[in-house]
Specification:
Elements (H helix, E strand, L loop, with lengths): L5 H5 L17 H14 L2 H11 L2 H4 L1 H4 L1 H16 L2 E11 L2 E10 L5 E8 L5 E8 L12 H17 L5 E7 L2 E8 L1 E3 L4 E2 L6 E2 L4 H14 L28 H6 L10 H4 L30 H15 L3 H13 L20 E4 L4 E4 L15 E2 L1 H12 L6 H7 L16 E5 L2 E10 L2 E8 L4 E7 L6 H13 L1
Antiparallel strand pairs: 1-2, 2-3, 3-4, 5-6, 5-16, 7-8, 9-12, 10-11, 13-14, 14-15, 15-16
Helix pairs in contact: 2-3, 3-6, 7-15, 8-11, 8-12, 12-13
C-alpha cells in the first residue's frame, strides 16, 4: 500500500536549520531546547511557524510538494500522542555535511524513553526530525517466567490505553493458548463506539503475507515457479522502458525487483476496486535498479504478484485469497472491504490532519479497497489463527513454509523472506509483518523458536510500536 510508506519515509536521514546559517557551528543544546519548546507547546500554529522558518526548502518540497504539510502533520501527531517530552541527554555526530543531533527524551504520555533525532544540512537547515523508541524493558526478576512476561505486556498496554496512547486490540498467545487479549479505546469517535475483540482493523502491509502464501500455494501445486518471469503472466505492453522482462517471481517476493511506486495511483485510488482497474497506470512505473541487484521495499512488486495469482488461478485475486487463505485458516472476520460500503464492526483510523487542524479520519487518504500489497482488514483473533495455520503447515507444506519464512541474504534480502519479515537473534527469531498508515498501526509477530504469537492492531498513530518492542525485549529474557 503506497500511503502506508509515509511514516517509513519520514525516518530517512534529513536535517535542521539555524538562524545564522553561515556563522559559527550550531549549539546542539540550544537547538534541542528550542525544538522541544515548540513540540511541547502542542500548538499547530507554533509548529507550523517553526517548520516554515527552520526546515530546508528541499525537505518542504518532498513528496511532490507536500513535504511541508507532512512534516507539520507528523510533528503535530507526535505532540498530540506524547503530550510532553522531557530532555535527559544530548549527543551529536557529523556525517559528511549532515549534522545529526540525538536527544534522549522521556514521554509524559507513554512513560517510555525515546531518541529525538534532528538532522541539519551545511546551511544549518533542518532536513528531518523523527522519534525512535529507545527502551530495553528489562524485568528486574531473577527468574523470568511466562506469567511475568504476560503481566508486563498487560501492564504496559493498560498504561498506554489509560493515557490515551493506545486504541486497539492485543493478543498474546503460546501456540493455541491465548495468554492475554483485550480491546481498548473507540472504534468510532464520531459515534462513541468502543473497540471489541472482533472489531475489524485495517492491517496495512500485512496483506503481503497473504499474497505471498497464495503464490507459494501455486508453486506447491506446480502451477508456478520462483524463476518464472513476471511478463509470462502480464502483458509486457503494460510497462514502459526498462528491463521488466527479467523480473522474476522470486524477486517480487523478496522486494528485489527494482519496481518503484505506481505513478498516479494516489490520484486514482478512490476509483480502483479491482486489480484490472490499475492496469493503465503501470506504463510510467520506474525500475529503480537492475532487477535482483539490491533490496528496496516495493508495494508495487506485491501488487504484481496479485496479477500473477489471477493469471495462473483464473480466479479473481480477492476470491482466491478468501478461498485459499481465509477459509483454510478459519479467518471469518478478514477481507479487503470497499470503504464506502458499511461493513459491520470496523474501526476508523484517526490522525491529526494539517488540512483540517483536527483529529481526522483517514478515509480520504487511502485506496477505496485494499489489495495484494495492503489495505485489508482483520482481527487479532484471525491473525492468531493465520499464524497457527502457517506454522502448523495447513496453508503450505513444511518445506515451502520454511522457504517463505527464511531470510534471503544471498538474494540481497537479509531481513526478508517471501512476503515475511525475518528479525531477531539466533534462538529468538521473529517472523511476521507490520502495517502502518495514517492513524493506524499493526503487527503480527511469530516467535518461531519459543512458540509465542503477538498480534497488535491499533487505530491511532504509532499505537502498536511500544507494545511490540516491549514484547520483543521481554521475549529475549524468557
Amino acid at each position: 500500500m503506497r500511503l502506508m510508506q509515509i511514516i517509513l519515509l519520514l525516518v530517512l536521514p534529513y536535517s535542521v536549520a539555524a538562524k545564522q546559517p553561515d556563522e559559527s557551528q550550531l549549539n546542539p543544546s540550544i537547538v534541542v531546547e528550542e525544538f522541544l519548546t515548540v513540540f511541547n507547546s502542542n500548538d499547530v500554529e507554533t509548529i507550523t511557524k517553526y517548520v516554515d522558518e527552520h526546515f530546508a526548502q528541499q525537505s518542504l518540497n518532498r513528496w511532490q510538494g507536500s513535504g511541508r504539510e507532512r512534516y507539520i502533520g507528523y510533528i503535530t501527531n507526535m505532540a498530540n500522542l506524547h503530550k510532553e517530552l522531557k530532555l535527559e541527554s544530548i549527543k551529536h555526530d557529523q556525517q559528511g555535511q549532515i549534522l545529526r543531533v540525538t536527544s534522549h527524551v522521556h514521554s509524559n504520555a507513554t512513560g517510555l524513553n525515546y531518541d529525538s533525532v534532528i538532522s541539519f544540512d551545511q546551511h544549518h537547515k533542518i532536513t528531518n526530525w523523527y522519534l525512535s523508541l529507545n527502551e530495553t524493558f528489562e524485568l528486574a526478576d531473577e527468574i523470568v517466567t511466562e506469567l511475568k512476561v504476560t503481566q508486563a505486556i498487560q501492564k504496559l498496554t493498560e498504561k498506554l490505553a489509560k493515557n490515551g496512547v493506545f486504541s486497539g486490540t492485543v493478543l498474546f498467545a503460546k501456540d493455541d493458548k491465548v495468554l492475554f487479549t483485550k480491546a481498548y479505546g473507540l472504534a468510532s469517535r464520531r459515534y462513541d463506539v468502543k473497540n471489541n475483540l472482533t472489531t475489524k482493523f485495517q492491517i496495512g502491509s500485512m496483506n503481503k503475507m497473504f499474497t505471498s502464501v497464495g503464490i507459494m500455494q501455486l508453486i506447491e501445486a506446480n502451477k508456478l515457479s520462483l524463476d518464472d518471469k513476471l511478463t509470462q503472466y502480464m502483458d509486457r505492453n503494460y510497462f514502459g522502458v526498462g528491463d521488466f522482462d527479467s523480473i522474476t517471481i522470486e524477486q517480487l517476493l523478496t522486494h528485489t525487483s527494482g519496481l518503484g511506486d505506481i505513478v498516479g495511483f494516489e490520484a486514482k485510488q478512490s476509483q480502483i476496486r479491482s486489480l484490472q482497474d490499475s492496469l493503465p497506470l503501470y506504463k510510467n512505473t520506474p525500475l529503480n535498479f537492475k532487477p535482483g541487484s539490491q533490496w528496496q521495499y516495493s508495494s508495487t512488486g506485491m501488487r504484481m504478484l496479485g496479477h500473477v495469482i489471477e493469471s495462473v488461478s483464473k480466479q479473481d485475486y480477492y476470491a482466491f485469497i478468501q478461498q485459499h487463505i481465509y477459509q483454510k485458516a478459519g479467518m471469518t472476520d478478514s477481507g479487503s472491504f470497499d470503504l464506502d460500503v458499511p461493513i459491520k464492526n470496523t474501526a476508523r483510523n484517526y490522525w491529526y490532519s494539517f488540512e483540517t487542524n483536527a483529529i481526522t479520519e483517514n478515509l480520504m487518504k487511502q485506496a477505496v479497497k485494499g489489495g495484494p500489497a495492503g489495505g485489508g482488514y482483520s482481527t487479532v483473533g484471525d491473525l492468531h489463527r493465520f499464524a497457527l495455520s502457517l506454522i502448523n503447515h495447513q496453508l503450505l507444506n513444511a518445506e515451502l513454509t520454511s522457504q517463505a519464512t527464511s531470510a534471503k541474504p544471498e538474494l540481497h534480502s537479509p531481513r526478508y523472506g517471501y512476503g515475511f519479515s525475518v528479525r531477531g537473534d539466533k534462538g529468538n527469531q521473529i517472523i511476521g509483518h507490520n502495517g502502518a498508515h495514517l492513524g493506524m498501526s499493526a503487527q503480527l509477530n511469530i516467535y518461531r523458536d519459543k512458540g509465542y504469537i503477538l498480534a497488535v492492531l491499533g487505530n491511532s498513530a504509532d499505537a502498536a510500536e511500544p507494545i511490540v518492542l516491549a514484547t520483543n525485549s521481554l521475549m529475549k529474557q524468557l
